[in-house]
Design goal:
Blueprint (H helix, E strand, L loop, with lengths): L16 H6 L2 H16 L6 H8 L13 H24 L6 H18 L1 H8 L9 H22 L10 H21 L11 H16 L9
Helix pairs in contact: 2-3, 2-4, 2-6, 4-5, 4-6, 4-7, 5-6, 5-7, 5-8, 5-9, 7-8, 8-9
Amino acid sequence: MKDFTGKGWSRHHGRGRDAYHHGNLKEALIEAALGLIAANGPLGFTFAEAARQAGVSPAAPYRHFRDREQLLADVAARGFERFAEALTQAWNGGAPDAIGAFVRVGKAYLEFARTQPGYYAAMFQAGVQLDSLPELRAAGDRAFGILRGAAETLGTRLPPERRPPALMMALHVWAMSHGVASLFVQGAELGRPLPMSPEDLLEAGVLVYLQGLGLATAPSAS
């Protein structure tokens, strides 16, 4: 197994004091926090537990983080960076079709919630304020900016007098995606049975929304 500097380390030898020498303490704490958040929720661990999971003393985390909240903020910032990358890839500049790309962005939202539960919980369920870290605010704004830019692109299909505010569209679709993710992806064990996948549910909702704005046509009856 490789550490973050490219040097080999094992579960037993790459932690504790070795982490100081390799410069991996911060990364080890973030990985520990991610695992604890995914298992217990963003409020289900202490600073000392993150240290213990990383194999270091309770005092060691203070070398990099002021407190548990700053550790959570760092995790959330990294999550938003990855989230923004996933949304950017899904949007792909609106190619080959802007409406299809817009739907892909929503599906990428669900995929991130499903495959990155630790990051997702730190981002949206831990109560971390975006302004707690400059890099967190920047990453969060970048992620939302992708959705807003996509909405602006779609809006140009309508004449100016009928064009909805891009911010409103982005917020509506963000809320729809977040709702489906919270009810049927992250909290799947508590959700109602669905006659379709969460992705299909979100796609149907987005298309109905876009049809209401005049940006998409209803499918013809077969």
